[in-house]
Amino acid sequence: MNEEPTLVVSKIRNGTVIDHIPAGKALDILSVLGIAGKEGLRIAVLMNVESKKLGKKDIIKIEGKRLSPQDVSAIALIAPTATINIIEDFAVVEKYKVTVPNIVVDVLACPNPTCISNKKGELVRTRFKLVSGNPLKLQCEYCGTIISGDEVVKFVIKRK
Amino acid sequence: MKSSFYQHDVLSILDFSREDLELLFGYAERMEKSIDTKLSLLFGKMVALAFFEPSTRTRLSFEVAAKRLGADVISITGEESLSISKGESLADTIRMLDTYSDLIVIRHRYEGAAKYAAEIARHPVINAGDGKQHHPTQAMIDLYTVKKLFGTVDGLNYGILGDLRYGRASTSFIFSLTLFKPKKVYLISPESLRVREEVLHVLKERGVVYEERRSLGDVIEELDVLYVIRIQRERIPDPIEYEKVKGSYKVTLDLLKRAKKELKILHPLPKVDEIDERIDNTPHAAYFIQAKYGIPVRMALLALIFGVEP
Q1: FRET partner for A76 with CA separation of 20 to 30 A, picked from A7, B38, B46, B255?
Q2: Which CATH superfamily is domain B13-135+294-306 in?
Q3: Pick from B184, B186, B227: nearest CA to B209
Protein backbone atom coordinates (compact mmCIF):
# COMPACT_ATOMS: atom_id res chain seq x y z
CA MET A 1 0.00 0.00 0.00
CA ASN A 2 1.17 3.45 -0.78
CA GLU A 3 -1.26 5.84 0.86
CA GLU A 4 -0.78 9.59 0.94
CA PRO A 5 -0.63 11.04 4.48
CA THR A 6 -3.65 13.25 3.84
CA LEU A 7 -5.98 10.29 3.35
CA VAL A 8 -7.97 9.78 6.51
CA VAL A 9 -9.12 6.20 6.27
CA SER A 10 -8.66 3.89 9.19
CA LYS A 11 -6.81 0.64 8.78
CA ILE A 12 -8.78 -2.57 8.63
CA ARG A 13 -8.20 -5.41 11.05
CA ASN A 14 -8.95 -8.39 8.82
CA GLY A 15 -9.89 -8.36 5.18
CA THR A 16 -8.70 -7.29 1.77
CA VAL A 17 -7.32 -4.11 0.30
CA ILE A 18 -7.42 -3.80 -3.48
CA ASP A 19 -4.88 -1.18 -4.47
CA HIS A 20 -3.60 0.35 -7.72
CA ILE A 21 -6.98 0.19 -9.41
CA PRO A 22 -7.02 2.43 -12.50
CA ALA A 23 -8.82 5.66 -11.55
CA GLY A 24 -12.55 5.42 -11.94
CA LYS A 25 -12.81 1.61 -11.94
CA ALA A 26 -13.54 1.04 -8.25
CA LEU A 27 -17.30 1.00 -8.66
CA ASP A 28 -17.02 -1.52 -11.50
CA ILE A 29 -15.01 -3.74 -9.20
CA LEU A 30 -17.54 -3.49 -6.39
CA SER A 31 -20.20 -4.36 -8.92
CA VAL A 32 -18.47 -7.49 -10.18
CA LEU A 33 -17.76 -8.57 -6.62
CA GLY A 34 -21.50 -8.36 -6.07
CA ILE A 35 -21.11 -5.69 -3.41
CA ALA A 36 -24.01 -3.27 -3.36
CA GLY A 37 -23.38 -1.84 0.11
CA LYS A 38 -26.31 -3.59 1.76
CA GLU A 39 -24.29 -6.61 2.84
CA GLY A 40 -23.19 -4.96 6.08
CA LEU A 41 -19.50 -5.15 5.17
CA ARG A 42 -17.34 -2.24 6.34
CA ILE A 43 -15.96 -0.80 3.12
CA ALA A 44 -13.84 2.19 2.18
CA VAL A 45 -13.74 3.27 -1.43
CA LEU A 46 -11.18 5.87 -2.41
CA MET A 47 -11.36 7.22 -5.89
CA ASN A 48 -9.02 9.37 -7.95
CA VAL A 49 -6.36 9.62 -5.27
CA GLU A 50 -2.75 10.39 -6.14
CA SER A 51 -0.52 7.51 -7.11
CA LYS A 52 3.19 7.51 -7.95
CA LYS A 53 2.76 4.62 -10.40
CA LEU A 54 -0.54 5.49 -12.03
CA GLY A 55 -0.91 9.25 -11.55
CA LYS A 56 -4.39 8.68 -10.15
CA LYS A 57 -5.82 5.49 -8.76
CA ASP A 58 -8.68 3.97 -6.81
CA ILE A 59 -8.43 1.86 -3.65
CA ILE A 60 -10.99 -0.45 -2.04
CA LYS A 61 -10.74 -1.71 1.52
CA ILE A 62 -13.14 -4.42 2.60
CA GLU A 63 -13.29 -5.55 6.18
CA GLY A 64 -13.95 -9.25 6.68
CA LYS A 65 -13.86 -10.34 3.02
CA ARG A 66 -11.64 -12.90 1.34
CA LEU A 67 -11.64 -13.04 -2.45
CA SER A 68 -12.31 -16.22 -4.40
CA PRO A 69 -10.14 -17.12 -7.44
CA GLN A 70 -13.08 -16.05 -9.65
CA ASP A 71 -13.19 -12.68 -7.86
CA VAL A 72 -9.48 -12.18 -8.52
CA SER A 73 -9.85 -13.11 -12.21
CA ALA A 74 -12.72 -10.65 -12.56
CA ILE A 75 -10.68 -7.90 -10.93
CA ALA A 76 -7.77 -8.64 -13.27
CA LEU A 77 -10.01 -8.17 -16.30
CA ILE A 78 -11.22 -4.76 -15.13
CA ALA A 79 -8.09 -3.55 -13.33
CA PRO A 80 -5.02 -5.36 -14.66
CA THR A 81 -2.73 -3.11 -12.58
CA ALA A 82 -4.42 -3.95 -9.27
CA THR A 83 -2.63 -5.40 -6.27
CA ILE A 84 -4.37 -7.43 -3.61
CA ASN A 85 -3.36 -7.12 0.02
CA ILE A 86 -4.62 -9.65 2.51
CA ILE A 87 -4.82 -8.11 5.96
CA GLU A 88 -4.76 -10.04 9.20
CA ASP A 89 -4.67 -8.28 12.53
CA PHE A 90 -3.84 -4.94 10.87
CA ALA A 91 -0.80 -6.36 9.08
CA VAL A 92 -0.36 -7.22 5.40
CA VAL A 93 0.18 -10.99 5.43
CA GLU A 94 0.07 -11.48 1.68
CA LYS A 95 0.41 -9.12 -1.26
CA TYR A 96 0.23 -9.94 -4.95
CA LYS A 97 -0.40 -8.36 -8.31
CA VAL A 98 -3.35 -9.68 -10.24
CA THR A 99 -2.62 -11.30 -13.58
CA VAL A 100 -5.04 -11.75 -16.44
CA PRO A 101 -5.34 -15.54 -16.77
CA ASN A 102 -5.06 -17.18 -20.19
CA ILE A 103 -8.30 -19.03 -19.56
CA VAL A 104 -11.06 -17.41 -17.53
CA VAL A 105 -13.44 -20.02 -16.13
CA ASP A 106 -16.85 -19.24 -14.68
CA VAL A 107 -16.20 -15.50 -14.49
CA LEU A 108 -17.89 -14.12 -17.62
CA ALA A 109 -21.30 -14.78 -19.11
CA CYS A 110 -21.33 -15.10 -22.89
CA PRO A 111 -23.25 -12.27 -24.60
CA ASN A 112 -24.39 -14.60 -27.39
CA PRO A 113 -27.94 -15.78 -26.55
CA THR A 114 -27.54 -18.95 -28.64
CA CYS A 115 -24.27 -20.00 -27.00
CA ILE A 116 -24.64 -23.38 -25.29
CA SER A 117 -23.45 -21.74 -22.07
CA ASN A 118 -26.70 -19.75 -22.08
CA LYS A 119 -29.00 -22.75 -22.64
CA LYS A 120 -31.41 -23.22 -19.77
CA GLY A 121 -31.05 -26.46 -17.88
CA GLU A 122 -27.41 -27.16 -18.86
CA LEU A 123 -24.65 -26.88 -16.29
CA VAL A 124 -22.00 -25.30 -18.49
CA ARG A 125 -19.15 -23.45 -16.81
CA THR A 126 -18.30 -20.57 -19.12
CA ARG A 127 -14.76 -20.51 -20.44
CA PHE A 128 -13.06 -17.60 -22.19
CA LYS A 129 -9.63 -17.59 -23.74
CA LEU A 130 -7.45 -14.48 -23.58
CA VAL A 131 -6.88 -13.41 -27.19
CA SER A 132 -5.08 -10.17 -26.41
CA GLY A 133 -4.17 -8.35 -23.21
CA ASN A 134 -3.90 -4.84 -24.59
CA PRO A 135 -6.46 -4.09 -25.93
CA LEU A 136 -8.24 -6.65 -23.80
CA LYS A 137 -9.98 -9.30 -25.94
CA LEU A 138 -11.48 -12.55 -24.72
CA GLN A 139 -13.07 -15.30 -26.78
CA CYS A 140 -15.78 -17.71 -25.67
CA GLU A 141 -14.43 -21.25 -26.03
CA TYR A 142 -17.88 -22.60 -26.82
CA CYS A 143 -19.26 -20.22 -29.43
CA GLY A 144 -16.25 -18.16 -30.50
CA THR A 145 -17.77 -14.78 -29.60
CA ILE A 146 -15.14 -12.14 -28.83
CA ILE A 147 -15.71 -9.52 -26.15
CA SER A 148 -13.33 -6.65 -25.71
CA GLY A 149 -12.28 -3.63 -23.67
CA ASP A 150 -14.78 -1.83 -21.50
CA GLU A 151 -17.69 -4.10 -22.45
CA VAL A 152 -16.07 -6.97 -20.50
CA VAL A 153 -17.32 -5.56 -17.20
CA LYS A 154 -20.93 -5.94 -18.38
CA PHE A 155 -20.49 -9.69 -18.72
CA VAL A 156 -18.89 -10.53 -15.39
CA ILE A 157 -21.15 -12.95 -13.54
CA LYS A 158 -22.36 -11.20 -10.39
CA ARG A 159 -21.66 -13.15 -7.22
CA LYS A 160 -23.33 -13.01 -3.84
CA MET B 1 0.51 -45.61 -36.17
CA LYS B 2 -3.00 -44.28 -35.70
CA SER B 3 -3.85 -40.93 -37.33
CA SER B 4 -4.82 -37.82 -35.42
CA PHE B 5 -8.44 -38.65 -36.26
CA TYR B 6 -8.29 -41.86 -34.25
CA GLN B 7 -10.94 -41.80 -31.50
CA HIS B 8 -10.85 -38.03 -31.80
CA ASP B 9 -13.74 -35.55 -31.72
CA VAL B 10 -14.45 -33.54 -34.85
CA LEU B 11 -15.64 -30.18 -33.55
CA SER B 12 -13.97 -27.57 -35.75
CA ILE B 13 -12.05 -27.82 -39.00
CA LEU B 14 -9.35 -25.78 -37.25
CA ASP B 15 -8.61 -28.78 -35.02
CA PHE B 16 -6.96 -30.42 -38.05
CA SER B 17 -3.89 -29.79 -40.16
CA ARG B 18 -3.37 -29.82 -43.89
CA GLU B 19 -1.67 -33.21 -43.55
CA ASP B 20 -4.67 -34.62 -41.67
CA LEU B 21 -6.99 -33.47 -44.46
CA GLU B 22 -4.75 -34.87 -47.17
CA LEU B 23 -4.82 -38.22 -45.40
CA LEU B 24 -8.62 -37.96 -45.28
CA PHE B 25 -8.76 -37.18 -49.01
CA GLY B 26 -6.66 -40.27 -49.76
CA TYR B 27 -9.12 -42.39 -47.79
CA ALA B 28 -12.06 -40.72 -49.55
CA GLU B 29 -10.61 -41.57 -52.97
CA ARG B 30 -10.41 -45.21 -51.96
CA MET B 31 -13.95 -45.08 -50.55
CA GLU B 32 -15.22 -43.73 -53.86
CA LYS B 33 -14.11 -46.95 -55.51
CA SER B 34 -16.21 -49.08 -53.19
CA ILE B 35 -19.11 -46.70 -52.89
CA ASP B 36 -21.63 -49.22 -54.25
CA THR B 37 -20.65 -52.12 -52.06
CA LYS B 38 -21.38 -52.84 -48.46
CA LEU B 39 -18.18 -53.12 -46.47
CA SER B 40 -17.77 -54.66 -43.06
CA LEU B 41 -15.03 -52.40 -41.73
CA LEU B 42 -17.26 -51.09 -38.94
CA PHE B 43 -19.18 -54.29 -38.30
CA GLY B 44 -20.46 -54.31 -34.73
CA LYS B 45 -20.13 -50.55 -34.29
CA MET B 46 -23.12 -48.38 -33.41
CA VAL B 47 -23.30 -44.82 -34.68
CA ALA B 48 -25.81 -42.43 -33.06
CA LEU B 49 -27.20 -39.57 -35.10
CA ALA B 50 -28.55 -36.83 -32.85
CA PHE B 51 -30.09 -34.15 -35.03
CA PHE B 52 -31.80 -31.52 -32.93
CA GLU B 53 -32.15 -29.31 -36.01
CA PRO B 54 -33.64 -30.24 -39.37
CA SER B 55 -31.28 -31.85 -41.84
CA THR B 56 -31.65 -33.94 -44.96
CA ARG B 57 -28.33 -34.24 -46.74
CA THR B 58 -26.02 -34.32 -43.74
CA ARG B 59 -28.10 -36.78 -41.74
CA LEU B 60 -28.77 -39.11 -44.65
CA SER B 61 -25.19 -39.06 -45.89
CA PHE B 62 -23.89 -39.89 -42.40
CA GLU B 63 -26.41 -42.70 -42.20
CA VAL B 64 -25.46 -44.07 -45.62
CA ALA B 65 -21.73 -43.67 -44.88
CA ALA B 66 -22.02 -45.58 -41.59
CA LYS B 67 -24.17 -48.33 -43.13
CA ARG B 68 -21.90 -48.72 -46.16
CA LEU B 69 -19.07 -49.37 -43.73
CA GLY B 70 -21.13 -52.03 -41.97
CA ALA B 71 -22.05 -50.07 -38.83
CA ASP B 72 -25.51 -49.93 -37.33
CA VAL B 73 -27.24 -46.58 -36.89
CA ILE B 74 -29.64 -45.21 -34.32
CA SER B 75 -31.05 -41.76 -34.75
CA ILE B 76 -33.12 -39.12 -33.08
CA THR B 77 -34.42 -36.17 -35.02
CA GLY B 78 -36.13 -32.94 -34.16
CA GLU B 79 -36.07 -31.50 -30.68
CA GLU B 80 -39.86 -31.68 -30.46
CA SER B 81 -40.04 -35.45 -30.71
CA LEU B 82 -37.49 -36.01 -28.00
CA SER B 83 -37.58 -36.26 -24.26
CA ILE B 84 -35.86 -32.91 -24.51
CA SER B 85 -39.30 -31.42 -25.04
CA LYS B 86 -40.25 -32.95 -21.70
CA GLY B 87 -37.46 -30.95 -20.16
CA GLU B 88 -34.53 -33.34 -20.36
CA SER B 89 -31.20 -31.60 -20.63
CA LEU B 90 -28.89 -32.02 -23.60
CA ALA B 91 -26.30 -33.36 -21.17
CA ASP B 92 -28.60 -36.23 -20.10
CA THR B 93 -29.50 -37.08 -23.70
CA ILE B 94 -25.81 -37.23 -24.60
CA ARG B 95 -25.05 -39.47 -21.59
CA MET B 96 -27.74 -41.86 -22.77
CA LEU B 97 -26.53 -41.92 -26.39
CA ASP B 98 -22.99 -42.40 -25.17
CA THR B 99 -23.97 -45.62 -23.44
CA TYR B 100 -25.90 -46.88 -26.50
CA SER B 101 -23.30 -46.13 -29.18
CA ASP B 102 -19.64 -45.92 -30.19
CA LEU B 103 -19.81 -42.49 -31.80
CA ILE B 104 -22.23 -39.57 -31.72
CA VAL B 105 -22.97 -37.23 -34.62
CA ILE B 106 -24.71 -34.11 -33.35
CA ARG B 107 -26.41 -31.12 -34.92
CA HIS B 108 -27.84 -28.44 -32.67
CA ARG B 109 -28.97 -24.84 -33.00
CA TYR B 110 -26.83 -23.68 -30.07
CA GLU B 111 -23.21 -22.72 -30.83
CA GLY B 112 -20.86 -24.87 -28.77
CA ALA B 113 -23.36 -27.72 -28.33
CA ALA B 114 -21.02 -30.24 -29.96
CA LYS B 115 -18.08 -29.16 -27.82
CA TYR B 116 -20.26 -29.46 -24.73
CA ALA B 117 -21.44 -32.92 -25.86
CA ALA B 118 -17.82 -33.96 -26.40
CA GLU B 119 -16.97 -32.93 -22.86
CA ILE B 120 -19.71 -35.22 -21.58
CA ALA B 121 -19.37 -38.23 -23.88
CA ARG B 122 -16.60 -40.82 -23.56
CA HIS B 123 -16.95 -41.72 -27.23
CA PRO B 124 -15.98 -39.45 -30.12
CA VAL B 125 -18.40 -36.69 -31.12
CA ILE B 126 -18.72 -35.31 -34.64
CA ASN B 127 -20.13 -31.82 -35.03
CA ALA B 128 -22.65 -31.88 -37.88
CA GLY B 129 -23.41 -28.18 -37.37
CA ASP B 130 -23.68 -26.09 -34.21
CA GLY B 131 -25.74 -22.95 -34.76
CA LYS B 132 -23.87 -20.45 -36.89
CA GLN B 133 -20.45 -21.61 -35.79
CA HIS B 134 -18.98 -24.79 -37.29
CA HIS B 135 -19.77 -27.46 -39.86
CA PRO B 136 -16.39 -29.20 -40.17
CA THR B 137 -17.47 -32.22 -42.22
CA GLN B 138 -19.05 -29.93 -44.82
CA ALA B 139 -15.72 -28.10 -45.11
CA MET B 140 -13.97 -31.45 -45.62
CA ILE B 141 -16.36 -32.22 -48.48
CA ASP B 142 -15.92 -28.73 -49.95
CA LEU B 143 -12.13 -28.97 -49.95
CA TYR B 144 -12.25 -32.48 -51.37
CA THR B 145 -14.47 -31.17 -54.18
CA VAL B 146 -12.01 -28.35 -54.98
CA LYS B 147 -9.13 -30.83 -54.90
CA LYS B 148 -10.96 -33.16 -57.30
CA LEU B 149 -11.89 -30.33 -59.66
CA PHE B 150 -8.59 -28.43 -59.75
CA GLY B 151 -6.10 -31.03 -58.52
CA THR B 152 -5.15 -28.60 -55.72
CA VAL B 153 -6.62 -26.27 -53.14
CA ASP B 154 -3.62 -23.91 -53.25
CA GLY B 155 -3.04 -20.91 -55.47
CA LEU B 156 -6.69 -20.34 -56.40
CA ASN B 157 -8.85 -17.24 -56.03
CA TYR B 158 -11.92 -17.91 -53.92
CA GLY B 159 -15.09 -15.87 -53.67
CA ILE B 160 -17.40 -16.69 -50.78
CA LEU B 161 -20.78 -15.13 -51.35
CA GLY B 162 -23.81 -14.74 -49.14
CA ASP B 163 -24.82 -14.70 -45.52
CA LEU B 164 -21.34 -14.93 -44.04
CA ARG B 165 -22.55 -13.76 -40.64
CA TYR B 166 -24.88 -16.64 -39.85
CA GLY B 167 -23.65 -19.30 -42.29
CA ARG B 168 -21.78 -22.12 -40.58
CA ALA B 169 -20.84 -23.87 -43.83
CA SER B 170 -19.23 -20.69 -45.15
CA THR B 171 -17.50 -20.10 -41.80
CA SER B 172 -16.01 -23.60 -41.79
CA PHE B 173 -15.02 -23.29 -45.46
CA ILE B 174 -13.23 -19.99 -44.73
CA PHE B 175 -11.49 -21.61 -41.75
CA SER B 176 -10.51 -24.62 -43.87
CA LEU B 177 -8.85 -22.40 -46.48
CA THR B 178 -6.50 -21.07 -43.78
CA LEU B 179 -4.99 -24.57 -43.59
CA PHE B 180 -3.97 -24.28 -47.27
CA LYS B 181 -2.45 -21.54 -49.43
CA PRO B 182 -5.23 -19.83 -51.35
CA LYS B 183 -4.08 -16.98 -53.57
CA LYS B 184 -6.83 -14.66 -52.39
CA VAL B 185 -10.15 -14.99 -50.60
CA TYR B 186 -12.95 -12.52 -51.36
CA LEU B 187 -15.66 -12.35 -48.70
CA ILE B 188 -18.72 -11.02 -50.50
CA SER B 189 -21.85 -10.17 -48.55
CA PRO B 190 -24.40 -7.46 -47.82
CA GLU B 191 -23.13 -5.10 -45.10
CA SER B 192 -25.38 -6.56 -42.37
CA LEU B 193 -24.30 -10.14 -43.15
CA ARG B 194 -20.55 -9.56 -43.04
CA VAL B 195 -18.29 -12.24 -41.66
CA ARG B 196 -17.98 -12.22 -37.85
CA GLU B 197 -15.06 -10.69 -35.96
CA GLU B 198 -13.74 -14.04 -34.72
CA VAL B 199 -13.53 -15.35 -38.30
CA LEU B 200 -11.57 -12.31 -39.48
CA HIS B 201 -9.32 -12.81 -36.47
CA VAL B 202 -8.37 -16.31 -37.71
CA LEU B 203 -7.74 -15.04 -41.27
CA LYS B 204 -5.46 -12.28 -39.97
CA GLU B 205 -3.67 -14.53 -37.51
CA ARG B 206 -2.93 -17.08 -40.23
CA GLY B 207 -1.86 -14.52 -42.81
CA VAL B 208 -4.48 -15.29 -45.46
CA VAL B 209 -4.85 -12.60 -48.15
CA TYR B 210 -8.50 -11.59 -48.08
CA GLU B 211 -10.76 -8.70 -48.96
CA GLU B 212 -14.33 -7.91 -47.96
CA ARG B 213 -16.58 -6.85 -50.84
CA ARG B 214 -20.25 -5.99 -51.26
CA SER B 215 -20.78 -7.04 -54.87
CA LEU B 216 -19.91 -10.21 -56.77
CA GLY B 217 -19.81 -8.16 -59.99
CA ASP B 218 -16.63 -6.40 -58.79
CA VAL B 219 -14.55 -9.58 -58.59
CA ILE B 220 -16.23 -12.22 -60.76
CA GLU B 221 -13.49 -12.12 -63.45
CA GLU B 222 -10.82 -13.10 -60.92
CA LEU B 223 -12.46 -16.11 -59.32
CA ASP B 224 -11.60 -19.79 -59.73
CA VAL B 225 -14.03 -20.98 -57.09
CA LEU B 226 -17.27 -19.27 -56.11
CA TYR B 227 -18.79 -20.63 -52.91
CA VAL B 228 -22.40 -19.54 -52.42
CA ILE B 229 -24.66 -19.90 -49.40
CA ARG B 230 -28.26 -18.99 -48.85
CA ILE B 231 -29.49 -16.44 -46.33
CA GLN B 232 -29.85 -18.28 -43.04
CA ARG B 233 -33.36 -17.03 -42.36
CA GLU B 234 -33.80 -19.23 -39.28
CA ARG B 235 -30.82 -17.62 -37.54
CA ILE B 236 -31.54 -13.96 -38.21
CA PRO B 237 -33.10 -12.82 -34.95
CA ASP B 238 -35.13 -9.96 -36.42
CA PRO B 239 -37.64 -10.69 -39.24
CA ILE B 240 -37.36 -7.05 -40.40
CA GLU B 241 -33.63 -7.59 -40.79
CA TYR B 242 -34.36 -10.65 -42.95
CA GLU B 243 -36.78 -8.70 -45.14
CA LYS B 244 -34.09 -6.08 -45.75
CA VAL B 245 -31.52 -8.57 -47.04
CA LYS B 246 -33.86 -11.04 -48.74
CA GLY B 247 -32.91 -11.44 -52.39
CA SER B 248 -29.97 -9.06 -51.99
CA TYR B 249 -27.58 -11.24 -53.99
CA LYS B 250 -27.92 -13.65 -56.86
CA VAL B 251 -25.57 -15.40 -59.26
CA THR B 252 -26.96 -14.86 -62.75
CA LEU B 253 -26.05 -16.12 -66.22
CA ASP B 254 -25.31 -12.53 -67.13
CA LEU B 255 -22.70 -12.22 -64.40
CA LEU B 256 -21.13 -15.51 -65.43
CA LYS B 257 -20.47 -14.19 -68.94
CA ARG B 258 -17.58 -12.26 -67.39
CA ALA B 259 -16.28 -15.22 -65.37
CA LYS B 260 -13.34 -17.47 -66.20
CA LYS B 261 -14.32 -20.47 -68.28
CA GLU B 262 -12.95 -22.74 -65.53
CA LEU B 263 -14.91 -21.07 -62.72
CA LYS B 264 -16.63 -23.64 -60.50
CA ILE B 265 -19.56 -22.80 -58.26
CA LEU B 266 -19.95 -24.65 -54.97
CA HIS B 267 -22.94 -24.56 -52.65
CA PRO B 268 -23.51 -26.66 -49.52
CA LEU B 269 -27.23 -26.89 -50.44
CA PRO B 270 -30.12 -26.46 -50.01
CA LYS B 271 -30.16 -23.48 -52.35
CA VAL B 272 -33.12 -21.16 -52.47
CA ASP B 273 -32.92 -18.33 -55.00
CA GLU B 274 -29.30 -17.22 -54.77
CA ILE B 275 -28.28 -19.08 -57.93
CA ASP B 276 -30.25 -18.81 -61.17
CA GLU B 277 -31.49 -22.36 -61.79
CA ARG B 278 -30.38 -22.18 -65.42
CA ILE B 279 -26.80 -22.29 -64.10
CA ASP B 280 -27.42 -25.87 -62.89
CA ASN B 281 -26.90 -27.12 -66.44
CA THR B 282 -23.69 -25.19 -67.13
CA PRO B 283 -20.16 -26.54 -66.57
CA HIS B 284 -19.79 -23.93 -63.80
CA ALA B 285 -22.20 -25.77 -61.49
CA ALA B 286 -20.27 -28.11 -59.20
CA TYR B 287 -22.71 -28.30 -56.30
CA PHE B 288 -24.30 -31.59 -57.25
CA ILE B 289 -20.90 -33.26 -57.56
CA GLN B 290 -20.02 -31.67 -54.21
CA ALA B 291 -23.15 -33.18 -52.63
CA LYS B 292 -22.22 -36.59 -54.05
CA TYR B 293 -18.83 -36.46 -52.31
CA GLY B 294 -20.63 -36.25 -48.96
CA ILE B 295 -20.73 -40.01 -48.68
CA PRO B 296 -17.13 -41.02 -49.50
CA VAL B 297 -15.71 -38.19 -47.38
CA ARG B 298 -17.88 -39.09 -44.39
CA MET B 299 -17.03 -42.78 -44.89
CA ALA B 300 -13.35 -41.83 -44.87
CA LEU B 301 -13.80 -39.80 -41.70
CA LEU B 302 -15.61 -42.59 -39.86
CA ALA B 303 -12.95 -45.11 -40.93
CA LEU B 304 -10.18 -42.85 -39.65
CA ILE B 305 -11.93 -42.21 -36.33
CA PHE B 306 -12.40 -45.93 -35.77
CA GLY B 307 -8.88 -46.65 -37.01
CA VAL B 308 -9.76 -48.98 -39.88
CA GLU B 309 -8.28 -48.88 -43.38
CA PRO B 310 -10.33 -49.08 -46.54
Answers
A1: A7
A2: Aspartate/ornithine carbamoyltransferase (3.40.50.1370)
A3: B184
